[in-house]
């Protein structure tokens, strides 16, 4: 409490005695009043004669935050601001100047006169504060971007906030050159930085660094609201400090830190909505009426009727059952026609949209508290995310906390400790997306409905025939029907994930230019799976029925007539310990930065899975005999063992590293750097020189704009050249033989067994990647145009791949250092302030990347051994001279004009000998290119007008191919998989001029279908340009809010996942990013953000 007493023209300030007034003691209050009155009487005149007190408040002009501990001076008199930015200073002149100073802000002076009473002062951030943003963090040290020789990408909070997704991957997509997100056949997203220089996807991913230590979890498990900036390390000089794990790039995540003294609170909340997908817009799926006509055609051919005699009683479609009843005289032709007409009006896709899908909702709330004092800084963040997925009964939630505290007891010592927690839950209790259900491997009939004629949940025959399930067991078995609506939500399939990370660090300044540091991180990551199926779920009813035997009119259950619980537990314990010394010294024209350190890391992974039968709410369960063959009911599957699900795995990984980094500058114009690292692991060869792997880098920087002779219109023109070696490590393989134990119940002999998983490889060693990088960075004098252009060349050696092995050893292949990968590319970015017109501004950020790489050498099987091998690029292939995701195809010779048969080449001649065509060697096939874009980038346009912001991002992906979906007649008959290309098939002479789709012939020739679908005819260019996202925000910036302690309020609306294709190179209308025809819906996000 600050109390001012005015006497005459002066003001008496008695802050130190105010505690007496607050005292509950009456005597203290009386004493305080007496002393106060005495002072006012005795000194009021002197105060009036010697000067007066000026008061005011100091805030940041950038964000309105109060500035604590700012220096306020006038002549020789000084004062400082309190935690609210307020100050009071005694001045002894009627006119004068007050000077305000604070680290990180430009010094400012203010004149005062006799009329001045209260000052409201806004300090502007200093220029060096702006330069501080251009600091790169390698995870070991922070370097000024202007003095670093390596290739770095800095993604600040402004770019990260263009997308409000809770996924860190989505935040980074389309805002950085060289950063590519790819989806392969399993739809998992994979990140590539400058390509892929390993032959195993889990090894080829970039190394993730979170606050200076490797992060072993999933990138998307990190709450983006906790991250201030991201640095991407691309070349050897930048990344080789991370040694054997940096060969495919390094992504460094920097958590938010306290920047200024004082208290700051930030709250932001947003909601994302995504409409249910419109399944009816897929032009690759034909109408229900067409499908019914085709089914009648198949029935007339007798196709599939053999299933009526199959002892397994496989389910038939409703139309087949109806036609069989017609054939037996149970229904009339008119009845069939009426039912077919009724079915033709419906579509199961619409049923999925009505009963399975819904509008997805995601609500996120984030809170952060920053406090900076003289000797300590604390930041606390909390985030909560709740999501309802597009599939009903599927939902998720994520809770995250981060606490970081830095204490500086004195000028030499700094202590840091922090903890981070992420707790997430995913529940997958829904029916599944369209296409996930099938009828014994066949697509669901499109005329199936979710409700029957009475409006009740319908039953589907998807495993067994209705005629069998209606009477099986004469009422002594469980209901054997499958009802999709009753099944949805009836299970409890829950996954719980928890990540806990604890950090402790200590820094001590030994001298002005030498600092030592010791740090430790311990982390525990768990993932528990709890999938419970009660006795009413189809999985339990089916298993119980199959293993039930009816004897003397009573059922005998081999599987308990209760629930089934599938459990899984994954645990990963990781420990990192690091000690290092840094030195920074500038003298005369010289500058030196030195880093020397070492670290030890240890991790232990434990995985277990098991199934419990007879599980109930009381956690009781029943022991099962897994070693006896039981006859299945009605001999549906002969005799079988009861399914056994139990496994246990464990792994240990230990690494030791030594490293150093040296940067030397001359005249702040020339810089050279050198780094070296040596890693050791328990996974590699038996000799010490194989366990230890030396990696290094060297670089040079020339600031050409600092030269006296430089006369170009640039305020910055930097030239950088680096070369070095980094590496990869595949933790799934070892130099030593490995075996796997199998339980006796899994063997026919009923005896436990072991199998050899890999052989002895004493020469096994690290993968090594050499990278040459050259770059130019520039900025015009008016700062309107800034850019960067880089060329790189990468060569990976000793890449681990599987080589064929003599099968008499007990295994057919063994991982060895047996491949080379060579590549090169370009990265470019241009940041241009197109328009600066008062409040109106327009900025364009254009980014481009080119990445080409191939398997240069493979010591395994040669190309001549690949017979009949074709690839659509969805899986990794090891073909010497080809891209790892190569698309290879049978050479196409068009359609036969007389029969519509697809034609290829055998020994150079046109042929329809499909037996030979599908066995053609790779050397005789077409290499269409790669399924991964070779060129990609984006153009981000940002506009501002006063408090209004608007931006949109356009991306492009060029230079790749994809294999389109098309007709496969064998699947059309056997799996109900009918593609719309059947309408474009050859039907008469001359059609070969306008179509490549073969004619329909029955009986089906599967090799004919294989040849067509894997030929050049189904490969299209994947190049496209599309609008990805749009953002708009408005800042409510009212003086009344600021006076009340509330900072400007930001309101925003984002549109993501727009996928509006502006241009695509293929003319068939196929979207290369969604070749199955199903495009995700647009995501709409609305939110608010403010500070206190």
From TrEMBL:
UniProt keyword annotation of Transmembrane present: yes
Keywords carried by this UniProt record: Cell outer membrane, Membrane, Transmembrane, Transmembrane beta strand, Transport
SUPFAM superfamilies: Carboxypeptidase regulatory domain-like (SSF49464), Porins (SSF56935)
PROSITE patterns cross-referenced by the UniProt entry: TONB_DEPENDENT_REC_3
A matching Pfam family: Plug
InterPro entries assigned: Beta-barrel_TonB_sf, CarboxyPept-like_regulatory, Plug_dom, Plug_dom_sf, TonB-dep_rcpt-like
Ranges for domain TonB-dependent receptor plug: 146-250
One cellular-component annotation, GO: cell outer membrane
Location in or out of the cell: Cell outer membrane
Bilayer topology term: Multi-pass membrane protein
Family label: Belongs to the TonB-dependent receptor family.
Name assigned to this protein: TonB-dependent receptor plug domain-containing protein
